[in-house]
Write a structure and sequence with these properties.
Layout (H helix, E strand, L loop, with lengths): L9 E5 L4 H13 L2 E6 L7 E2 L2 E4 L2 H8 L4 E4 L3 H13 L4 E3 L7 H13 L3 E3 L5 E4 L3 E4 L5 H7 L2 E8 L4 H11 L4 E6 L10 H10 L5 E7 L4 H10 L7 E6 L6
Parallel strand pairs: 1-2, 1-5, 2-4, 5-6, 6-7, 10-11, 10-12, 12-13
Antiparallel strand pairs: 3-4, 8-9, 8-11
């Protein structure tokens, strides 16, 4: 098994016709992710890498049935609207790689996702990968690099650092250990899925036997994860490295 994402997950890419959206769509498609549709207002009827583009998420769902996940390659000012559109259409997993979003917009998006029982990864998340099954976002960067860094196995990986989201799985691979799922939770001050949320998902996953976490100073994510462990919401072996020695008060 894996958490959140597997080979059966269907994906719509919001902003597929843009440079970043097109590039990352090709990566996801080449890795084996089931990208079934794209959405760009006013660009309905186009195709990108053979994938049909629609004007709205609702229109994409009417043509393809319910879609499991949305990846939002939408510029900052339009991100909140795109996330709300995906949630209102019934999508239950939203990954937002976009950074430097107004804090009030992020708070609104995260709150709206939680109210609607939607898993929101990010903002500012490179995405997640379940090796050999699927990837959403651009974690890994290319199929060759993804195959170099990520092997299937029993270790879950959570990282606050985008770069270390690949380095930690590679170090595990060198040690002879593969991963069940690796994810970058995002860079913004307020995030959708937290470390504690993800630990509980790994707890329920039979394939995951242990978890490695790369944390950073600043914020309360690591403290919340520690509290989840203290409350026995996560009971499997856990290794945590927190980078940084000093931060402004």
């Amino acid at each position: 098994m894996s958490i959140i994402l597997d080979e059966n997950t269907t994906v719509v890419v919001q902003g597929m016709t843009g440079r970043e959206g097109s590039l990352r769509t090709k990566y996801m498609q080449d890795y084996g992710t089931k990208v079934v549709a794209g959405v760009t207002p006013g660009k309905g009827g186009m195709e990108v890498h053979g994938i049909p583009v629609y004007n709205t998420v609702e229109e994409a769902i009417k043509n393809h049935g319910m879609i499991d996940a949305a990846v939002t390659f939408v510029p900052g000012p339009g991100l909140k609207g795109a996330v709300y559109e995906a949630i209102d259409a019934g999508i239950k997993l939203v990954c937002s790689p976009v950074e430097r979003i107004p804090v009030h917009d992020v708070i609104d998006m995260v709150s709206y996702a939680r109210q609607n029982d939607v898993q929101m990864l990010g903002p500012g998340s490179l995405g997640l990968i379940s090796p050999g099954k699927a990837v959403i976002g651009w974690l890994g960067g290319s199929v060759d690099w993804a195959n170099t860094l990520f092997d299937p196995g029993p270790i879950g990986v959570i990282s606050r650092s985008g770069g270390q989201s690949g380095t930690v799985p590679w170090a595990l691979k060198v040690a002879g250990l593969g991963i069940s799922t690796a994810l970058h939770i995002g860079t913004e001050p307020v995030l959708g899925l937290t470390m504690a949320d993800v630990l509980q998902k790994f707890e329920a996953d039979e394939q995951t036997k242990a978890v490695a976490v790369f944390g950073e100073i600043g914020g309360t994510l690591e403290e919340e994860a520690a509290e989840a462990v203290a409350l026995k919401q996560f009971t499997k072996p856990l290794v945590v490295f927190i980078a940084g020695a000093w931060a402004p008060e």
